[in-house]
Amino acid sequence: MRTLAAPCTLSLVSRLKVYKSPSSSPMFQLCHSPFSLIPFPRPLSIMASATPSSSQAVSPGDVNKETNVFQLVQAHQEKAARLPPVEEIRTVLDQSTRGMLSTFSEKHEGYPSGSMVDFACDANGSPILAVSSLAVHTKDLLANSKCSLLVARDPEDRTDLVITLHGDAVAVSENDQAAVRTAYLAKHPNAFWVDFGDFQFMRIEPKVVRFVSGVATALLGSGEFSKEEYQASKVDAIAQFSKPVASHMNKDHAEDTKVIVQHSTSIPVDYAYMLDLDSLGFNVKAGYQGNTFKLRIPFPRRAEDRKGCENPHSRYAPSCPVSSQLTTLLKETKEDPVFYLHLTTTEYRPT
């Protein structure tokens, strides 16, 4: 793996002046490293351990007018546990369903051609495409198998993680057709056209996987992984529950999420909405005094499975309900915060 981190001269104060505006402004897209949702990206080499320190919270104390809110956020985020970079990339690709396919144009020799395509990853992390013989990109791939697939974790945020997988597109063998079809339809259940006569499945066999984040921010982070490194990594086991858990929390327990973020960061955020989660924590979009930014809220330990996420007790915030029928975020004391996911209901299934 090779990484790059390049600083920018834009100061913290000047950035706050520029971005002090509604959520529709660039403040909505505040920068962060590929694997930590914070307003101040940091080098990829500064990765938090999966085993956090005795306290991941900022030193206790109320926020006042003299306090630099975003410095508090940065201090908190530097301690937040995160997935290893290659595991994060493998997980994001596995959870994604659409990207930009770049091919070598058959008609316009030497020029690249781009197409928005749906895809699903197989068990080895290789993207699977369902392509029509009538499509221009299919003709391109049959003439030249070299291609790339660009996937953005948040297409609306140019500073967020962007992954580019380079590889060769090959037709799926007859022996693999059934497994590939099942994997593709699991992500695209309404894609009935995959059984049409002019459609076929193609697999992009990865050669190298690149990533970049923090574009146009205080610190640019980028790097790449070989095919062997990428395929040796695992999809995070808890990330599959992101969609149902985040949807439930945002619909029924948004106030509880806000309280947890406030207590964890010592910042009196106005709101906090859950974006996604993994075995080491969850990510939120929060607002404070007209500014909108992303934050990482860590768990105290890696959750290996649903059972490992369970915690039926909480000594914090009686307003945070605990129910065997709900997925609830729990937190203990401010000095030693503990977060768990209560995933005991059969209501939540992998997506």
TrEMBL record:
Q: Which GO terms describe its biological process?
A: heme catabolic process; tetrapyrrole biosynthetic process
Annotated Gene Ontology cellular components are: chloroplast
What positions does the domain CREG-like beta-barrel occupy? 90-213
| Pfam families per UniProt | CREG_beta-barrel, DUF2470
DUF2470 domain residues:
243-308
**Top-level taxon:** Eukaryota
Q: Which GO terms describe its molecular function?
A: heme binding; protein homodimerization activity
Q: Which PANTHER family match?
A: CREG1 PROTEIN, OS07G0573800 PROTEIN
Protein name, UniProt field: FMN binding
